[in-house]
Amino acid sequence: MTTPPALDDATRAALARDADLPLAVRALLAGEVPSEAAVTAFVEGHAFPIVAPGRALFAFRGVATRVELVRWIHSGIDRVPFLPVPGSDLWLLSMPVEDGGRFEYKLALGRDSHEEWILDPHNPNLARDPFGENSVCTTFGYERPAWTLPQNAPAGRIETVSLFSPTFQEEREEHVYLPPAQTGTGPFPLVVIHDGDDFVTYADLALSLDNLIAAGDIPPLVAALVQTRDRMGEYPRGRRHARYLVRELLPALDARYALAAEPARRVLLGASLGAVASLATAFRFPGVFGGLVLQSGSFILDERQLRQREHPVFHRIARLVKALKRAPDLKDTRAFVSTGELEGLAGENRALATFLERHGVAVRFQSSWDGHHWHNWRDQLRDGLMWVFDRTHK
User: Fold this and answer.
1) Residue 44 maps to which CATH number?
2) 4 preceded by cis ω (within 30°)?
3) N or C: which terminus of the chain has fewer CB atoms within 10 Å of its end residue's CB?
4) Looking at the whole model, is its pTM more than 0.85?
């Protein structure tokens, strides 16, 4: 039988920093075998992961041939192995992290030739997305923005708008967020939010808008929560989608609500492919929208990057960006471009910010130590909306 590897120095140091560790677990650091009671006390007596400046300590207890922490970062799957504590069913992982950030993960359990991915049973912090749930590690110094939590602010409401689209030859149903009634009768700024229903479900959008309006951080606004059944096809191609937004949806919204007509008070917002659709619409219909919030955009500005991305959607995006490079400048436009440092397209979003500045756009670029996740986009919503509405941060 192979002897389990010894604990690495980083794990020992992280454990040693915790003054509340049971003595039996401290003895483990000296090479002794901990008792089952000591392991139980250690696991049940701490909230995991244990975070310290620059480091996070994870624990798993169970029978397995290997345990790995799995993250979706840098356009791939990153696996970091746990180390077994000799003589016990405890596995530990101490890994370097950046302070003030977060990432989502699962545990991969290997049992002989089989592998199972599970949520971290010792970490109650979860995030949802359209594919399910992930465990979340928040690193030292991270705080969830207060404006994303319930604050008893007056609540807006969401209603449905139905319209027939000649462009797509189908009936479309969109949801619309309306500000709290006491905020006035308009005219209101308009924000068109791609994948808006998902923003509500996975990124606390309605609650956040309620809080930001109540605090005066953003003006009372109307948000069109655009959703499509074919985002992989509709968003990166862009032409028909832009026509639908500007020539069909906007007139329907103008006829129903008191909306501001000035481009400076009309904004396009989207994350990932939604950011691509937002930018394409702004360039195809210049002068209609004066604000852009582009989060973690799936952009390809350097065609050499296509060698690493075989999916045809990236080739469509590259052709779109190539066309945009030849387009006239976007005048009187403000854009907020954000990314996560753990994303595979962080560099491309930096390049996008530079590209927009060269096209006459007033740009604010912002990055966080996070991945391609809804909570990353949630956390940067306030900064994005305040920038495009030209409001001073408090």
Assistant:
1) 2.60.40.10
2) no
3) N
4) yes
